[in-house]
Amino acid sequence: MAIKKVKPTSPGRRNFSYDDFADITRNTPEKSLTFVRKRRAGRNNTGKITVRHQGGGVKRGIRIIDFKRDKFDIPAKVATIEYNPNGGARLALLHYADGEKRYIVAPVDLKVGMTVMSSKELIEIVPGNAMPVKYIPAGVMIYSVELEPGYGAKIARGAGTKVSVMGVEEKYAQLRMPSGEIRKVKGECLCTIGQVSNPEFFNIIIGKAGRSRLMGIRPTVRGTAMNPNDHPHGGGEGNQPIGLRHPKTKWGKHALGVKTRRNKKPSTKLIIQRRKKNK
């Protein structure tokens, strides 16, 4: 992937950049693996807005992605590399030897015509192959990692992300997460070899408000710009400080840096080193 910039013919296009889609080999998705995304605009089943700043956006089709990789020991040929409107990573359409078709999150350097496979045993370590993490040598990059065997990939699915295998001890493998956290994962958990495709996705600059609206993102108003009855930070003449001991959300709860992880969460014992806090 390469990022293209446009001529600064207007303030909105001055910093505007976009993906050139050079690695895309097909413009239309596989119909049997696609369904229309239902628009909710941040509302629950009663119509009340429970997630602010969502709404509008262009019509999208949801691609059914195989995160479990549970077709074992059946080779699959990469038919196409496709765009995913619901995420930054590319999708690879696999044609299995038995005729079934599935989407997977494509790794870097996966090309049309290559063959990939998923297995519970040790197989060749090439991008796109899936196998238990206990067979991965130290230093190899992986993605789409399961937290529990058979539950499907939960970690490292976004564009450009990767997990580094640090070693295997008894029943667990030690992994360095994209955040810097080091944790243990059961050796039977499946993972995919490689790094998630489209690593330059986060360098794209939206450039203008209208493009955010096309993405389904509505405007976000600062709390300090509101009235006191609308937000704890509101009120005052001109630029006023928050004036509180802690920053708060619209509903009065502490915000910015508050730990939300439960103290007695069972998986805490599997975390060797927490991620480093950004300064």
Gross CATH architecture of the domain at 22-38 and 59-202:
Roll
Identify the strand order in the major beta sheet: 9-16-10-13-14-15-17
CATH class identity of the domain at 22-38 and 59-202: Mainly Beta
Average of per-residue pLDDT values: 91
Termini gap: 30 Å
H/E element order: EEEEEEEEEEEEEEEEHE
CATH topology of the domain at 22-38 and 59-202: SH3 type barrels
Shape: globular
Largest sheet: 7 strands, antiparallel
Helix residue percentage: under 10%
Kindly state the number of beta strands. 17
Parts with pLDDT < 50 across at least 5 consecutive residues: none
CA-based gyration radius? 22 Å
SS-derived structural category? mainly beta
The total of helices stands at 1
Binned strand content? 15-25%
Oligomerization: single chain
What does this structure look like?
There is one protein chain. Helices cover 2% and strands 24% of the residues. The model has no long low-confidence stretch (mean pLDDT 91). By secondary structure, it is mainly beta. It has a domain at 22-38 and 59-202: SH3 type barrels. The protein has a 7-stranded antiparallel beta sheet with strand order 9-16-10-13-14-15-17, with no helix packed on it. It has a 4-stranded antiparallel beta sheet with strand order 7-6-5-8, with no helix packed on it. It has one helix at residues 209-214, and strands spanning 3-5, 17-19, 34-36, 61-63, 76-82, 91-96, 101-105, 115-116, 130-132, 141-143, 145-146, 153-155, 163-169, 172-176, 182-186, 190-193, 271-273.
